């Protein structure tokens, strides 16, 4: 290896802390079948190589085979000599280190050549279909490896909906950000057939952080390298939030793993570490008063529901829900769709109609709403539980969301509410106030009808799991 090449290699190596370098050395040695003293390893570093077969054997269980081949093609693309790297079918130590350096520590410019080879083995523009296949492989591999390593933090493939449709939905969402040089965004069949050159894909990788984050997770967890070191950024540590309140309850969430990852990334950073189930219509019954009793004064939360046509959608409430005839919340609230498409719709600044919850009033609408206006919400669940609407012609004024349900007026099939972040201190205490304690008028109404203390039976203390369920 010449001086210039050696300097390049050393520059890449210097990006890693000494303990990280040891970790990378250990994995390379395992892949190349090396052993012996440190001096021997260093003196022969350039002679030891990794074959595709060795990489496949090492990652057979943690990664799908097609992703292992893509990683190999990415490593092989690193040109050490100025000669075509395609001539050598084996990976040298320097290629392995530079691959790690560029994908884990590099910018979009440093990553792009490797990503292009991971998308397609041949040089030149790539078709949208190839980018689609790469993106779906990427997401599927993240779900696979996190499940294999038991890093889903209480979520699993049994307590969430099928990830296969979630993989395709998230891939479609990320691909919708592909933008040609003239600013147009090809969609559907047009996207699949369009040719994209390297500069367009580099711009996409720069603007869509999930691509780099997912690659980092696949390398760290797939090769089991640098996976436990402290340089991991918050977006990797909080890629999947901890899941509380679902263990042992026989519930399959309306969320799938890819949609959890995507929607969690839109939450304020301080709320991304944990989701806790507050309400499920399948566990707590189909009742608006039950819904209110479980979600009022519990801090920020996510509402997700499914209509009878199978559409899945919801919203993030940035504040504790309160029963009152005024709008509440702030511009961190958003609406989202999970199925048939995955998307997040953030505030437009047109109005401040973020959140609304009312019950037992004669003069104002009774129900839970987000966005739009009275009788014309972006998302509405009526106090006559089971009915709702999503009205947007053409878009919700507050969130710029389209109609989220299959039909404008829909019938509810199932609903969940998840508290995000840490619960307010008052929410976890026994004997906490119920909606009736907070609303003396509602209490008085119940007393008049002879139902004064019935709500006590609805009280449910929130119990935190001692540890993440894996």
Q: Structural class of the helices, strands and pairings?
A: alpha+beta
**Gap between N and C termini:** 47 Å
Query: Mean pLDDT, nearest integer?
Result: 86
Biggest beta sheet attributes: 12 strands, mixed
Number of beta strands: 16
What share of residues are in beta strands?
A: 15-25%
As a whole number of angstroms, the C-alpha radius of gyration is 26 Å
> Which geometry do the CA atoms define?
elongated
Helix content: 25-40%
Number of helical runs?
18
Sequence stretches where pLDDT stays below 50 over 5 or more residues: 35-46, 82-86, 430-435, 444-463, 466-470
Describe how the helices and strands are arranged.
Layout: H1 3-13, H2 18-32, H3 38-43, E1 49-50, H4 52-58, H5 65-76, E2 91-92, H6 93-105, H7 108-119, E3 126-127, H8 128-148, H9 163-175, H10 188-193, E4 195-196, H11 198-207, H12 209-222, H13 234-237, E5 242-244, H14 257-266, E6 274-280, H15 281-284, H16 288-295, E7 301-307, E8 312-317, E9 324-328, E10 334-339, E11 343-346, E12 355-358, E13 367-373, E14 376-382, E15 387-389, E16 409-420, H17 435-438, H18 440-448
Parallel strand pairs: 5-6
Antiparallel strand pairs: 1-2, 3-4, 6-16, 7-8, 7-16, 8-10, 9-12, 10-11, 12-13, 13-14, 14-15, 15-16
Helix pairs in contact: 5-7, 7-11, 8-9, 8-12, 9-14
């Amino acid at each position: 290896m010449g001086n210039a090449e050696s300097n390049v290699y050393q520059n890449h190596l210097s990006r890693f802390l000494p303990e990280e370098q040891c970790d990378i050395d250990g994995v390379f040695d395992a892949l190349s079948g090396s052993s012996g003293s440190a001096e021997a390893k260093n003196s022969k570093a350039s002679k030891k190589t990794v074959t595709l077969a060795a990489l496949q054997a090492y990652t057979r269980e943690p990664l799908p085979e097609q992703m292992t081949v893509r990683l190999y093609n990415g490593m092989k693309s690193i040109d050490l000599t100025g000669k075509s790297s395609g001539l050598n079918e084996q990976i040298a130590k320097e290629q392995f280190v530079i691959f790690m350096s560029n994908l884990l520590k590099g910018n979009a410019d440093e990553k792009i050549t490797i990503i292009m080879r991971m998308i397609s083995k041949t040089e030149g523009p790539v078709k949208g279909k190839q980018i689609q296949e790469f993106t779906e492989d990427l997401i599927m591999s993240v779900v696979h490896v996190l499940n294999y390593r038991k890093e889903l933090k209480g979520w699993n493939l049994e307590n969430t909906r099928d990830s296969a449709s979630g993989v395709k939905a998230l891939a479609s969402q990320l691909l919708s950000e592909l933008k040609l040089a003239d600013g147009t965004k090809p969609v559907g069949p047009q996207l699949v057939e369009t040719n994209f050159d390297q500069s367009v894909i580099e711009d996409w990788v720069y603007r869509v952080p999930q691509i780099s984050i997912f690659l980092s997770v696949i390398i760290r967890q797939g090769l089991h390298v640098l996976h436990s070191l402290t340089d991991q950024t918050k977006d990797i540590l909080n890629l999947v939030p901890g899941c509380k309140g679902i263990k042992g309850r026989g519930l399959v969430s309306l969320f799938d793993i890819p949609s959890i990852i995507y929607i969690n990334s839109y939450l304020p950073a301080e709320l991304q570490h944990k989701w806790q189930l507050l309400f499920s219509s399948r566990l707590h019954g189909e009742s608006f008063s039950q819904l209110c009793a479980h979600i009022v004064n519990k801090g920020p939360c996510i509402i997700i529901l499914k209509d009878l046509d199978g559409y899945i959608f919801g919203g993030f409430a940035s504040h504790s829900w309160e029963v009152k005839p005024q709008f509440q919340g702030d511009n961190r609230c958003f609406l989202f769709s999970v199925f048939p498409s995955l998307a997040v719709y953030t505030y437009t600044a047109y109005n401040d109609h973020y959140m609304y919850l009312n019950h037992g009033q004669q003069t104002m609408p009774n129900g839970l709403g987000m966005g739009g206006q009275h009788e014309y919400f972006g998302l509405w669940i009526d106090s006559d539980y089971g009915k709702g609407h999503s009205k947007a012609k053409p878009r919700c004024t507050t969130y710029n969301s389209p109609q989220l349900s299959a039909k404008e007026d829909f019938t509810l099939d199932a609903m969940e509410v998840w508290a995000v972040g840490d619960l307010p201190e008052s929410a976890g205490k026994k004997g906490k106030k119920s909606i009736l304690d907070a609303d003396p008028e509602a209490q008085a109404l119940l007393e008049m009808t002879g139902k004064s203390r019935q709500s006590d039976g609805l009280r449910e203390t929130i119990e935190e799991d001692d540890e993440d369920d894996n």
